[in-house]
Amino acid sequence: MIKTQRIAASVVEKVLAGASLTAVLQALWQLYPALSSQQRGAIQDLSYGVLRFYGQLDALLGLLLKKSLQDRKLYFLLLVSLYQLEYSKTPSHAVVDHAVSASRFLGGSKRIPGLVNAILRNFIRQHECLLQQVDGNDVGRYSHPQWWIDKLRTQYPHDFQAILAANNKRPPMTLRVNQRKISVADYQALLDKKEMKTQLLWCSALQLVQPVNVKELPGFSEGWVSVQDAGAQLAAPFLNIQDGMRVLDACAAPGGKSTHLLELGQVALTVLDNDATRLARVAQNLERSRVKAARLICGDAAYPAQWWDGKPFDRILADVPCSASGVVCRHPDIKWLRRERDLAQFVVTQQKILNALWLILARGGQLLYVTCSVFAEENQCQMEKFLCHHSNAQALSLSGMSIMNGQLLPNMYHDGFFYTLLHKT
Ligand SMILES: C[S@@+](CC[C@H](N)C(=O)[O-])C[C@H]1O[C@@H](n2cnc3c(N)ncnc32)[C@H](O)[C@@H]1O
Q1: Which domains does the chain have, with CATH numbers?
Q2: Name one GO cellular component term (predicted).
Q3: What is the pLDDT of residue 164?
């Protein structure tokens, strides 16, 4: 555990210095190929956990320290240890012992192990009182940056606490059953036999009670199922595709929605993304799903002149780049890496993409605007502006589900998404 604590502390340090958690972990697995899958799991668990509750843990540490810590490595090791004491099942004496031993590897003053011991034991002793104090401050209570909390409080006065709580939960694992290969009921029965309990959320969305390694899923490599959040599974059906249509998935990688579109209809699909590395993942996903091939293009959705063949599309899926504020439970680093000013940049990019795609949609065609954001600037405000400037655009109603004004809020079953289906008259 000493090693996993120390490595997790270094992961969190890198993320809080500005790197993405996924990228840091990927680099780490390459650097330490000898780590066992158990050690990897533990490092991942600790890093995700600390970032999920960073606001609270940092506030607790602030209360426990007499003055601010100069030694950053020690600071991150203490954050990891506090997370373990508060949220893991590891016995507290083991957490403290390992933290004290790990601190000896940090170098520095001989007094450090004693300091670590004292801080962590004080936390255990004063637990209730410290938690109460931390709860008195927004960042300590909700573990999100203050600007984020303020924005949600303004935009969702009734729901902001539920959204923040959902963001701090571990995400569920949801499958999308490829009904061209097997019915949902038959697949659920197969999982049942393997004692993998599931809950049917909607259409083909089967949620696992306990996440599993995809290798354990029957028919995964044959494309019987894909892993996809239930909220994301709404996109492809919303587009009302019919066989023979020309369809563009404009910001497609890694291809979760592209494969779904191909499962739903025999369409001529163009898959576009401006990131070649991510586009390669679409190719892998298409291959695994064994759905009819699509045309893959690396290009910028905001500049169709560079890649478009001149034939209008009947349907366009615009799953635009966004703040990703609806998928925080899967990417807890996002809330600490985003700055409020980033939003304005996303809004401009989204607007450029949307305006450009509108020109290549056929008359009578439909475009689905999607974000995985909960911020109104990227969603309702963006759509209001678009409708105001395009007299040939109508927003069609999206019925069913718990979508209000296009917004699906994150909860324990799914991530947060925004959907608007635009019809070109
Ligand atoms: C939200 S992700 C798409 C997720 C994908 N639709 C799925 O369901 O698997 C947004 C994607 O847009 C791509 N992107 C960003 N800016 C773009 C642009 N100007 N043109 C095309 N793709 C872009 C990113 O590389 C990223 O893969």
Answers
A1: 2-143 (1.10.940.10), 179-227 (3.30.70.1170), 233-424 (3.40.50.150)
A2: cytoplasm
A3: 98
